[in-house]
Design goal:
The complex is a heterodimer of chains A (210) and B (271). By secondary structure, chain A is mainly α. Chain A is 83% helix and 0% strand. In chain A, helix 1 packs across helix 10, helix 3 crosses helix 6 and helix 7 packs antiparallel against helix 8. In chain B, the strands form two sheets. In chain B, strands 6-7-8-3-9-10 form a six-stranded mixed beta sheet, with helices on both faces. Chain B has a four-stranded antiparallel beta sheet with strand order 2-1-4-5. The chains are: A mainly alpha (210), B alpha/beta (271).
Chain lengths: 210, 271
Amino acid sequence: MNVVRFMLQNRTQVLELTWEHLWLVGWSTFFAALVGIPLGILIAHRTRLNKPVLASANIIQTIPSLALFGFLLPVPWLGERVDRLAILALTLYALLPIIRNTYDGIRGVDPAVVEAGRGMGLTESQLLFKVELPLAVSVILSGVRVAAVICVGLATIAAAIGAGGLGEFIFRGLAMVDNRVILAGAIPAAIMALLADFGVGWIEKRLKPR
Amino acid sequence: MRFGKDRGLRYAGRNAWGTTLVIEFRNVSYRVNGVHVLSDLSLHVARGETLVLLGRSGSGKTTTLKLINRLAVPSSGEILVNGAPNDQVDVIRLRRGIGYVIQEVGLFPHFTVERNISLVPKIEGWPEAKIRARVHELLQIVGLGPAFASRYPGQLSGGQRQRVGVARALAADPAILLMDEPFGALDPLTRDELQREFLSLQQGLHKTVVFVTHDLHEALRLGSRIALMEAGKLVTLLTPAEFLKSSDPWASAYVRAFGDRLDSAVNRGAS
């Protein structure tokens, strides 16, 4: 097991890069949820906005990640710190699944339940927090889950602009034509993706009504 | 809002028959995208009566009901609730004073029966002990034992669910009850049971009820008056006994469609 030996020999660097990777993924998923969930709620209620918002998020998704990182480099405040830039780019990619699932989750609440709630005199915010969000929570969180997994994968590209993370090993391994180095980046990234999937899934199960 | 109050007082009077009007429609029309759902509807509901809105689907009965608690807003005309135009009072207050029961029930699936029933009292800040007592009282009234309090809607039968729906609508003791085909989705036996219970409940509570149905049998049995609607218009407004003898073409068409043995259904309750 050459790879394992290589990783053990370089364990401080593996841990460091894993930590950087986690940092990028954590913040970008967090920011994407912070923006995406309210946006999803908004377009679920103002249906006229849903097409433009979802279309924009879709378009962002189609930009090749390497190109987006490159595009953002000359932007003044962002370009100064590449991790900032990487977090912004990853946030943009993570938006679509979160907006989409929040929208679907809220639209999927039985209209009879919403009508009954409104008819009995719940205010719009009571309706949202007591009825719609609790009933949509598992759909919303599975969007967050997808977003986190996407971010783990895409964050490896961030190494191309020097933002660190496990991509460093992958790019270095590619340049050295050394599979051990590539795998030293890829394996922790794959584990992280699985853990993110599992972790958000666990939260989902805890928050799900009944 | 002095003006509003004065208007309220002026409207809240008694009509020529000495009954208090709780709900009044004045030349109400409702259009969606140029389609007339309701045209020039005028009718009133007196305190303690059960007014049945009878008609086929698309006749505007549900819209009429939703206009009362402002789930729909009229294109023209006005609706008075307890003497005041319902667009001049806070819509949340208005709705909390009106119980609302729909065919699909719409129980909150993530809440227990108890939380479903107690939601509005809780929001209104009732003390905990009073809420619990009220929930048990209501479960009793709708014929479910206290054992049901901790169940979830998914664990109930259709009939039990609708009983909880009625209990929830009664929770904050509203004077008005709006019921939109509440028993429409139930099997005939359960429907019969719930209709019977509705009658005995109404004898004790004397709520002002507006009840939507397309079932003439149900209308005759539960209504103190029947408003027959067709294509967004009020065709005729009669007591159940009058309805059976009516020469109105729409009313007699209904009677023919439902056939014999309707006489036995007529509501002979005090109303």
